[in-house]
Amino acid sequence: MFDLTGKVALVTGAGSGIGRAIALRFARAGATVHVADLAEAGGKETVAMISAADGRAEFTRLDVTDETAVNALAAKTGALHVLVNNAGIGHVGTILQASGDDLDRLYRVNVRGVFNVSKAFLPAMLARRQGSIINLSSVGGIVGIRDRLVYCTTKFAVVGLTKSMALDHALDGVRVNCICPGRVETPFVQARLKEYPDPEKAYREMGATQAIGRMGQPDEIAAAAHYLASDESALVTGSALMTDGGWSAGK
Known about the structure:
Blueprint: E1 8-12, H1 17-28, E2 32-37, H2 40-52, E3 56-61, H3 67-77, E4 82-85, H4 100-128, E5 131-136, H5 149-168, E6 174-181, H6 187-193, H7 199-208, H8 218-229, E7 240-243
Parallel strand pairs: 1-2, 1-4, 2-3, 4-5, 5-6, 6-7
């Protein structure tokens, strides 16, 4: 199911967490995966994991905010079947606790990064009239979250960018969707839990945020990306797929 044999995919931020899970899942489904990440060690580890399972992958160190580097990678890689804009960063705080620099920093990665990579790889997809672009937003791109003002601002922007691109290219053979995860037990979240006085209590409270009573796992988000990457989702474009364990259901 959801065979990706013969497809070429690029996943940004694939050195850990959700991005790594997506890269691994795509490779298992038969895709050749370009693993892109600013963290060289993590990206190369993802490639090694794919290779150990007889998959096909290649690592490129990439800063998605560097338009020149992104364009060079697009020229080198050529046409993709699937592009996953997963690279992103977070911020904790209200508007009074955030600086303009914080807003600019998150905007450069979470919004401009998606813009840069999509713009670089889209022309080859349009020329072939085939492609699936998958952006990673958040439940915080659909509903507000306390103490996450800057983060939510950028993730709302990703949803808007996704829907606008989907409409612009709906007749061109290119589909554009985004995934909106809730709490997911990634290495980033695990590291943050250690900062709490009672990590086990914090873990339970994070899980309780979601209607199903637990956090998600990276491969559960990767499953959604796998569907959107496949031909079985041919009718799906412009969607913001909630993978939030019911967090937003009552909002």
